[in-house]
Amino acid sequence: MASFAKECIILLAFFFFFSSSSSAFPRGKRQKPQPCKELVLYFHDILYNGKNAGNATSAIVAAPQGSNLTILAPQFHFGNIVVFDDPITLDDNLHSNPVGRAQGLYIYDTKNTYTAWLGFSFSFNSTAHKGTINFMGADPILVKTRDISVVGGTGDFFMHRGVATIMTDAFEGEVYFRLRVDIKFYECW
Q1: In this structure, are strands 37-46 and 176-187 parallel, antiparallel, or unpaired?
Q2: pLDDT score of 7
Q3: How many CB atoms lie within 10 A of CB 80?
């Protein structure tokens, strides 16, 4: 029994020494993780306005009572739900060859400022990339750069997670906008 107590005391002393040692548990600032993969892409959204059916890549599918489906609602577009199937390019030119499609929806969800909730995927089927990247999060539109979560992917992006910094790169009224999407993956499988 005495040897057992002695072993416990030695074990506790050993534990105490290493748990209080600064070399075993360094304190201070944590190092910022480095991305395992990065991409910069652009997607181009052309909202259907009743006259541009041939060029439109997005459409209002739900609107507040009294609104229509070709004009965004007044008062910060609150209540509008828009679905989209937009081209993704490697540069900011709408007429560049697309490398994939941005497909999903955005919901204008705030009454007192321009804010949207985004849920969408980048779908690739090119020689450079195959698979999808899935995004989800709030978009405070009036902020110059904002972050949304990369919540997963398939194919070349299987189980990837990270952060996408988005920036409105061009804006033409309520019909066209272009987003620059700077994707940083912190989990790559």
Answers
A1: antiparallel
A2: 63
A3: 21
The residue type of 78 is: F
Domain boundaries, the chain: 42-187
Question: On the CB side of 16, how many CA atoms lie within 13 Å of its CA?
Answer: 6
Query: In whole angstroms, what is the distance from residue 178 CA to residue 92 CA?
Result: 8
Which amino acid, one-letter code, is at 116?
Answer: A
State the CB neighbour count (10 A cutoff) for residue 73: 17
Q: With H, G, I as helix, E, B as strand and everything else as coil, classify residue 16.
A: helix
Contact present, 160 and 121 (Cβ < 8 Å): no
Residue 48: partners with Cβ closer than 8 Å, 6 or more residues away = 56, 58, 59, 60, 70
Average confidence (pLDDT) over 68-95? 93
Domain 42-187, classified CATH 3.40.720.10, yes or no: no
What CA–CA distance (Å, rounded) separates 115 from 130?
31
Task: State the Cα–Cα distance between residues 133 and 124, nearest whole angstrom.
Answer: 9
Mean pLDDT value of segment 170-176: 90
